[in-house]
Structure formats: structure tokens, C-alpha cells
């Protein structure tokens, strides 16, 4: 059964890139109309066409021609007639002249053959290569009903929102976005969650990057979807060149982009997630307060019907590694962790950092962070590396741990076997030597933690926690054992990022030996090593064979924490993200069941979580980001 993505809050939006004929509105109307019909049948619910695309942006003084104005009116009416009975919203760039002679550059907003409204451009550029005030007037004060001999009666104002279902559409025109007070801000505070920008932005060196950055920041600031649609290569190149560069951002993230200077593309479509946008707005009290305290300007809201076509082919990439996508530079992550640890240790008056090293990924990253914290503190903190082999420790990981401590150059190495202590403890509890229950496993984890804290007492030290965000999400840690530390440097870092950071360290390793051992750690299966190794010495307990891939669990975690998505939506998105992964695709449903089964039942461990730095946009800290009753067992 195919997924209808509409049920999960997705809406399809398309930006047309028509080949236009300068000064030929009737020809342009036919081309635009055929594309509108095609995209509407394909499920597009909002379709936009660039700035002044009915006439062409570069018509210059032809905008003073009666013929051009008359033909552009007829062309808009042609599109209105051609879209009768077609649900959805069609946003067409063109000029509007009202009866007192004012000529506006703006957008005609059409649905089912009706002209719902006209949104004028407010900020008219009149410098450098732009001289729009030669032909147009600003729409800043336009807020009136227009009775037009060709187009009928409609409302003209920059203060309009077009609404249907989850969609509330606001329009701004090109340079409006570049102004200090972009109209889209006011529109968003009045409810618009999709901003459509009809643009004629010419190409200059570096300009494409800058306008994308503008949209990235604006879409994040006002918590919206933002479609930017720009004029193409069929505009005049007398003094300027246009590329048709169009793109879409959602909450600061690029989700689609057309290829500049493409001669073949006539449309680009994306599916925006309005459920995610609503969730983002609900979480941001600053945005909500701005909504409450904004100046109450007059606003027209127009209702329109959405297409009933279900969205089955999701037109956006679903990132299988969302946490990694947040990271511009791995140095950022390491610095957050290291500065947090250094500050914590110094404020506690600690003289040393105590790190338990197992030879696995998490403790390896913790050692790197502690090494950097020591350097940041001017080497005033002593770095003590501790290996604690026990009944479940394999020879390979023990050797990894020893090599790491040698290569990093810790100030002191301590190795304490916990085997005798664990055996005595189990004997005291009346357990047989063959016992392999959870008591056997957790006794080892708690013995290690006890020793680390005792060493911290001896050396006036801070115990550096190694557990990561993914393990906290699943409760894959022993309560009051590896769950506990003075400062949990990895508690804001998911397993996929832990692995990537160790890979990064291997890439910049100072010695060949260090690089080799890091690569071997990366190749080894993830394991708590709480059961004895196999007869051949290999690790007997592989975490991902028990609970599923951490790549999947991190995907589920991000979707739940960042977007507030339902279990059903997360599952559907995972099947898209990992569709071509032959190894992970068959695991999705089982891992999904395990994740949500464990996530809620293990909240009691997170409630007593030690402090640690927030690294990503989400975390599980019970003091800041995520608070949940311990008694809740499912959702």
C-alpha cells in the first residue's frame, strides 16, 4: 500500500521556469497555463511563476505601452479562465494598473479561475542595474478593493494570506526579502507558513550564495517554508543576466534547488512539511510572543481549495543521517565538548580528568575530548586513563585501549582488573559461576564505575562520562554505572556522530600507530562486552545485532525530538531514507518497534542524568530540553 504523504502534513509546491517572450503576454500566458495544468494534475497544490513573467521583467520603458498593459490584463484573464475548476493556488507575476494610473509590480493569486487577490511589491530597487521606480510605484499603502474592467473585483494589498487546510500562503516580491523589514516577517506573524517569493534576481559573482543565505536565515527566523522563484535565461541580457535560479528552504534547511542556467528545466517541485513547521513554531516562545505583540495591521485572509490528489511520490530528499547534516565542522563538536569539560572541572576545583577506556567508540571519543580539555586548560589538569578489564573484555579491545593511552600521552595510566571483585560480589549474592544473567552483566558495569569514582577521590579528579545520546535514548546503559559520571561529555552526541568524530580523528592522527588503532576501533562491532568472548577470542555480544542499527535509531530519535513526528510518520520517512540500503531497509520495522518500546520505558535513567554539553539542536537533558514522566511507558 502506497503512502499518502498528505496525511503527514506534506504539501506539494512548484516553481515554474517558463520560457517567455519579452513583451508578448498572450504567448506567455499560453505557455504558463499549460505548465500550470500539468503541475496541478501532478499534485501541485501551490504553483508560482517568477516576477513579471507575464510580460518579462526586462521590458523597460515598454511598461509605459498601452499595448503591453492591455495584453497583460487579457493574459491574466486567460489564465483565470483556463484554471476554472482547478483547485490549488496559482501565483503569477505581472503588472497591475489601477484606474488612477498607478502601476504596480506584483503577484496575481488565482484559484479555481477566481482572482483571489493581488500582492504588490513594496521595496522597489532603484540603484545600480535596477530602476523600477521609473515604471512602478510601491505597494506599501495599497490596501483596497479593485474593480477592474477585465479582471473583475478583487482585493489588492501586501497584507494578504491565502489559506486552505494546513497551508497559509503569503507573497513577497524579489527585493522585498532584501529589505531590513521584509514583508514575510509580518506575514508569518499573521499566520503565513509558506512564503512564495517571485523574483527577478540577476546573476553576479557570489550573489547566488548570498540570496540562498538570505532565504535560509529568513525561513529559520520566521519558522516557515520559503519558495524562491526567479526569472530565467529568456530575459534580456543587455545589461544583466538571469539564470532561473530557484530553490526551497524549510526552517533554514535547503530541501530543493533548480540548476542555474538550465535550458531544459521548466519546473521544480518540492514537498514541504507543514506539520514540522507548526511543531517548530509551537516550541519557540520568542516567535509566539512576537505573534502576540505585533502591530495589528489590517489583514485579508482568502480561502481556497486544495487538490484532492494524494501525494505518493515524495519530492524531497529524506536525509538518513540528520544529526550529521547539522555539523558544518567536526571541530565545532569537539570544542563544545572540550570547553564544557574544562569549565566543569575548573569550577569543581579538580586537578585531574579520569577517563575509563574500554577500546570502544564512546570512550575513545571521551579520551580525545579530555585530551583537548587538558590542552585548553593550559595542562593544569592531569589526564589519567584507566583500563578496567573484566570477564567480558576481549583481548583485542584491551589492546586498543592500551595503545590509545600510549599514543595520546596521558599523564598517568592505571589498569585494574575487575574480575576477582566481580566474582566475589556475585558469590556474595549467591550466584553460581555459570550465571550470565543481567546481574552478572551489570555487576561489571557498576564495579567499573565504583573504581573510577574512587580514583577521582584519590586524585581530586572529575570522572568523564562516555555514554552517548543514542544510548540514553534507548536506555542502553546500566543505571548508576556507565550511566553516571561527574560530567557526561558525550551525552549530547548520537552514535552516528561519535563514529564520524572518531573517523575524523583518524584522518588527522599525529602518528601512524594512532591512526591504525582508531581504524581498528571503527571496524570493531559495538559491544558493552559484558559477556565472555567466544572461544576464538571474538566479541560475543554485538549491540546492533540485538537492538538494530544505530543509524536507524538516530534517525528515529531525530524525527521524534526535532519534528515531534508520530511513530507512523517516522516509520514512513525511514522507509524512504533507507530504501536503497540493502542492509538497513529490512531492519527498519523491527528497529522502529524496539526504539519506541525502549525510549519511553527508560526515561527514569535520563531523569537522573549527570550534566553534559548540548551539541545538536536537540538533546535529552532532563533539566533543559526533554522532560517526561518516568511512568509513561508508551505513546
Kindly describe this structure.
The chain has 20 helices and 20 strands. An eight-stranded mixed beta sheet has the order 6-7-5-4-3-2-1-14. A seven-stranded mixed beta sheet has the order 13-12-11-10-9-8-15, covered by helices on one side. Strands 18-17-16-19-20 form a five-stranded parallel beta sheet, sandwiched between helices. The radius of gyration is 30 Å and the shape is elongated. The model has no long low-confidence stretch (mean pLDDT 93). The chain is α/β, with parallel strands linked by helices. Helix 11 (419-428) crosses helix 12 (438-458). It has helices at 25-41, 66-82, 183-189, 207-221, 274-283, 285-293, 322-325, 330-347, 361-376, 395-408, 419-428, 438-458, 469-474, 495-507, 512-523, 543-547, 550-563, 567-577, 588-601, 603-607, and strands at 10-16, 46-48, 89-97, 103-111, 114-120, 144-148, 152-156, 160-164, 167-173, 194-199, 225-230, 247-250, 253-257, 267-273, 300-303, 352-356, 382-387, 412-415, 461-465, 487-488. The relative contact order is 0.09. The protein has two domains: 12-303, Carbon-nitrogen hydrolase (Nitrilase/N-carbamoyl-D-aminoacid amidohydrolase), CATH 3.60.110.10; 326-543 and 601-607, HUPs (Rossmann fold).
Amino acid at each position: 500500500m502506497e503512502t499518502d504523504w498528505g496525511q503527514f502534513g506534506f504539501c506539494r509546491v512548484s516553481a515554474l521556469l517558463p520560457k517567455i517572450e519579452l513583451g508578448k503576454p498572450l504567448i506567455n500566458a499560453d505557455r504558463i497555463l499549460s505548465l500550470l495544468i500539468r503541475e496541478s494534475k501532478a499534485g501541485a497544490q501551490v504553483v508560482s511563476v517568477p516576477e513579471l513573467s507575464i510580460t518579462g521583467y526586462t521590458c523597460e520603458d515598454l511598461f509605459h505601452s498601452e499595448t503591453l498593459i492591455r495584453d497583460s490584463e487579457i493574459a491574466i484573464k486567460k489564465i483565470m479562465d483556463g484554471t476554472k475548476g482547478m483547485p490549488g493556488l496559482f501565483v503569477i507575476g505581472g503588472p497591475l494598473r489601477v484606474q488612477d494610473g498607478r502601476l504596480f509590480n506584483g503577484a496575481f493569486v488565482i484559484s479555481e479561475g477566481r482572482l483571489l487577490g493581488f500582492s504588490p511589491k513594496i521595496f522597489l530597487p532603484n540603484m545600480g542595474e535596477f530602476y523600477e521606480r521609473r515604471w512602478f510605484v510601491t505597494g506599501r499603502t495599497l490596501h483596497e478593493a479593485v474593480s477592474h474592467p477585465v479582471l473583475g473585483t478583487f482585493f489588492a494589498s501586501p497584507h494578504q494570506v491565502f489559506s486552505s487546510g494546513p497551508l497559509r500562503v503569503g507573497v513577497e516580491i524579489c527585493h522585498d526579502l532584501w529589505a531590513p523589514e521584509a514583508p514575510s516577517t509580518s506575514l508569518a506573524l499573521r499566520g503565513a507558513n509558506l512564503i512564495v517569493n517571485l523574483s527577478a534576481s540577476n546573476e553576479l559573482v557570489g550573489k547566488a550564495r548570498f540570496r540562498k543565505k538570505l532565504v535560509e536565515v529568513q525561513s529559520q527566523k520566521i519558522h516557515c517554508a520559503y519558495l524562491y522563484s526567479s526569472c530565467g535565461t529568456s530575459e534580456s541580457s543587455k545589461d544583466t543576466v538571469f539564470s532561473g535560479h530557484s530553490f526551497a528552504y524549510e526552517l533554514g534547511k535547503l530541501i530543493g534547488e533548480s540548476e542555474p542556467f538550465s535550458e531544459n528545466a521548466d519546473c521544480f517541485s518540492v514537498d514541504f512539511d507543514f506539520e514540522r513547521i507548526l511543531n517548530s513554531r509551537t516550541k519557540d516562545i520568542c516567535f509566539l510572543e512576537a505573534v502576540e505583540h505585533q502591530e495589528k495591521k489590517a489583514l485579508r485572509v482568502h480561502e481556497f481549495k486544495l487538490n484532492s490528489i494524494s501525494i505518493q511520490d515524495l519530492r524531497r530528499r529524506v536525509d538518513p543521517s540528520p544529526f550529521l547534516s547539522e555539523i558544518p565542522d567536526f571541530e565545532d563538536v569537539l570544542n563544545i565538548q572540550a570547553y564544557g569539560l574544562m569549565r566543569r572541572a575548573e569550577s569543581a576545583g579538580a586537578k585531574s580528568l579520569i577517563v575509563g577506556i574500554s577500546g570502544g567508540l564512546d570512550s575513545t571519543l571521551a579520551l580525545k575530548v579530555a585530551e583537548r580539555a587538558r590542552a585548553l586548560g593550559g595542562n593544569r589538569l592531569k589526564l589519567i586513563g584507566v583500563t578496567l578489564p573484566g570477564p567480558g573484555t576481549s583481548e583485542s579491545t584491551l589492546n586498543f585501549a592500551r595503545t590509545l593511552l600510549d599514543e595520546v600521552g596521558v599523564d598517568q595510566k592505571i589498569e585494574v582488573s575487575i574480575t576477582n571483585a566481580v566474582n566475589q560480589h556475585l558469590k556474595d549474592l549467591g550466584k553460581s559461576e555459570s550465571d550470565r544473567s543481567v546481574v552478572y552483566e551489570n555487576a561489571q558495569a557498576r564495579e567499573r564505575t565504583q573504581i573510577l569514582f574512587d580514583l577521582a577521590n584519590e586524585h581530586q579528579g572529575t570522572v568523564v562520562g562516555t555514554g552517548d545520546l543514542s544510548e540514553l535514548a534507548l536506555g542502553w546503559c546500566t543505571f548508576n554505572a556507565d550511566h553516571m559520571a561527574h560530567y557526561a561529555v558525550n551525552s549530547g552526541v548520537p552514535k552516528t556522530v561519535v563514529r564520524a568524530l572518531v573517523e575524523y580523528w583518524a584522518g588527522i592522527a599525529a602518528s601512524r600507530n594512532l591512526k591504525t588503532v582508531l581504524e581498528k576501533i571503527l571496524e570493531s562491532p559495538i559491544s558493552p562486552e559484558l559477556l565472555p568472548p567466544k572461544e576464538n577470542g571474538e566479541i560475543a555480544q554485538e549491540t546492533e545485532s540485538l537492538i538494530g542499527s544505530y543509524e536507524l535509531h538516530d534517525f528515529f530519535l531525530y524525527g521524534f525530538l526535532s519534528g515531534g513526528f508520530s511513530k507512523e510518520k517516522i516509520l514512513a520517512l525511514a522507509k524512504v531514507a533507507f530504501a536503497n540500503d540493502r542492509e538497513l531497509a529490512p531492519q527498519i520495522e523491527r528497529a522502529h518497534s524496539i526504539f519506541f518500546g525502549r525510549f519511553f520505558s527508560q526515561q527514569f535513567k535520563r531523569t537522573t542524568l549527570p550534566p553534559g554539553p548540548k551539541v545538536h539542536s536537540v538533546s535529552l537533558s532532563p533539566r533543559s530540553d526533554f522532560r517526561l514522566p518516568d511512568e509513561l511507558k508508551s505513546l
